[in-house]
Amino acid sequence: MKPVVWIAALAAAGALPASAAPIPRAQNFASTDVSSTDVALGAALAKLGDCAVCHTAEGGAPYAGGRPIATPFGQVFATNITPDRGTGIGSYSRAAFERAMRKGLRRDGAELYPAFPYDHFSYATGRDIDALYAFLMTRRPMRAVTPANRLIPPLGFRPVVAVWKALYFRPAPFAATPGKSAQWNRGAYLVASFGHCGGCHTPRNFLGAEQKAKAFDGGYAEGWYAPPLNASTPAATPWTEDRLFTYLRTGLDTNHAAAAGPMGAVTHELARAPQADVRAMAVYLADLMKTAPRSAAVDRATEAAAQHPVGATLYAGACATCHEPGSPMMREGRPPLRLGTPLHEDDARDTIAIVLRGLEPPVGAAGPYMPGYGASFSDAQVAEVVAYLRARFSGRPAWSKLPAAVAAARKETAA
Ligand code: HEC
Ligand code: HEC
Ligand code: HEC
């Protein structure tokens, strides 16, 4: 049965829990109410939590909202979280803010959609929530009305979120793992809470809830595949603490590929987050990802060209100037294609998306960048070159149904 039908059935059966009470409008916020230490800590947590990534529209003022977040059920617009009293969160008291972050409820008691990752932010400590509140309330208030959501019926009706919460949302304080170091536990806390890494890297069920039993097994986000961050990692060479730290801070590691798609925005924020916090996340993840590589980094140029002659010709004409071993770009220490994780993944969509859309230079680097081929290559040509790369550079089986996957990716990422 379709998820919408399911939810509608529950709603009709009267299974909707009673709605939450509104919290009265707060007095005007006085910046003397908060310490500069709190504001600084809040600024750091906002980077770790990507608040500005979602809450800033293209070309809009930071935190003033208006960016559409794509979900399988339609678009939810991130709201204005500047302290404007009319259109932002200016009338949120500290208690109302904490309830929104932990329980996903608006000040007036309305349900908030889990496109806002409160299922992760609910793990945050009270101290961290105070600091974020202090930071947001001392931003410049911006008047900006958030556009209306575009969700498939009946999901536009906010009370149905209560059904989803009753099924899947179990807010609980973060529990440290005994026997692990303080740094490991700090990393685990940040990954689970503000980092909301599982929001993309954990598979979701048919109603969009993360499957906790499959934490970090790999998931889908905005048309991209977020590969596993545990022992199922497809990476052809092991991820170590140092390599993870460099990747998370710069968006690039010389033994794996550059951070593309939505991961680019995540690393962009982490580049400005406290170094010790990113180090702690690297310590925790390196432990989760400890494994022997499943795929081999190979270079079977002759066999691959025999199997995919069209792809080999396209590669020689369009890609080899940059990617062929020994080319000027490769001599600058860029990751060779045989080491890039996308080519070793179970799913072809990251490689397809990179070829269609190209890549921006990673944070702090002036270039080189990669042009997108969405406009100059047909679906069949993208499929040929992708099949050639997979056969040449990875020890994994060929991807099936590539032309269809390219056509779908074009639609999803509007390339
Ligand atoms: C993945 C995108 C995403 C990220 C990251 C995100 N938010 Fe949001 N947030 C949303 C969306 C979407 C909504 C609106 C949900 C709705 O309308 O039901 C929202 C709503 C909110 C609200 C409710 C405000 C209101 O009255 O509408 C608050 C408060 C908030 N976010 C704070 C934060 C903070 C603080 C952070 C960073 C720690 C953050 N958000 C990170 C997507 C995001
Ligand atoms: C908005 C979705 C999203 C969020 C949130 C997110 N990621 Fe990612 N991540 C991705 C995608 C998509 C890729 C694959 C991109 C590519 O091919 O470059 C990726 C790639 C990665 C990789 C590279 C894996 C490899 O083997 O090459 C690491 C490591 C990683 N993410 C860690 C994290 C951590 C840590 C967090 C939380 C702080 C996080 N991600 C949050 C979407 C996300
Ligand atoms: C102007 C130089 C340039 C050209 C031309 C170019 N790329 Fe790239 N490509 C890059 C850079 C820079 C990166 C990011 C660094 C990295 O991860 O290797 C990249 C990354 C990639 C990646 C992801 C990394 C990985 O190892 O999986 C793939 C796949 C890729 N390119 C395929 C292609 C294909 C196919 C073509 C031709 C159709 C092409 N590129 C043309 C510069 C280029």
Helix content: 40-55%
- What is the averaged pLDDT score? 92
- The geometry reads as globular
The count of DSSP E runs of length 2 or more, i.e. the number of strands, is 5
User: What fraction strand?
Assistant: under 5%
SSE class: mainly alpha
Please compute the radius of gyration using only Cα atoms.
23 Å
Number of domains: 3
- DSSP helical segment count: 19
Topology as H/E string? HHHEEHHHEHHHEEHHHHHHHHHH
**End-to-end span in angstroms?**
32 Å
Q: What ions, cofactors and ligands are bound?
A: heme C
Notes on the protein architecture:
With 415 residues, the chain is mainly α. It has three domains: 3-168, no CATH class; 182-288, no CATH class; 301-413, Cytochrome Bc1 Complex, Chain D, domain 2 (Orthogonal Bundle). The chain is built from 19 helices and five strands. It has helices at 3-12, 36-48, 51-55, 94-103, 118-121, 126-137, 160-168, 182-192, 198-201, 241-250, 262-270, 275-288, 301-307, 309-318, 320-323, 328-331, 349-357, 379-393, 402-413, and strands spanning 68-71, 74-77, 150-151, 219-221, 224-226. The strands form two sheets. Strands 1-2-3 form a three-stranded antiparallel beta sheet, with no helix packed on it. Strand 1 (68-71) and strand 2 (74-77) form a beta hairpin. The protein is globular, with a radius of gyration of 23 Å. The two termini are 32 Å apart. The mean pLDDT is 92. The structure holds heme C (3 copies).
